[in-house]
Amino acid sequence: MLHPSYTDLMQVVNSEVEPGEQPVVNSRYSIVLATAKRARQLIDGAEPLVEVESNKPLSIAVEELYESKVKIITDDENSINE
Length: 82
Hints:
Layout: H1 6-13, H2 28-43, H3 57-66, H4 75-81
Helix pairs in contact: 2-3
């Protein structure tokens, strides 16, 4: 069983969204994509932002998301920042 659960991760990621705004993630698929992308960054040499017992990149990525150490940037936000 995955801990934290998909539901818990979605609540954490969407916790800063104002009422009436579009949530950052709407599905488990979005969470999976975000954690996989961060795990690839870790594999490529990025420094972990959290201390965890596991040295597996995916476990580290999940914990980083859960502790709000990384932020998911939507395509809309990305185009604004460019």
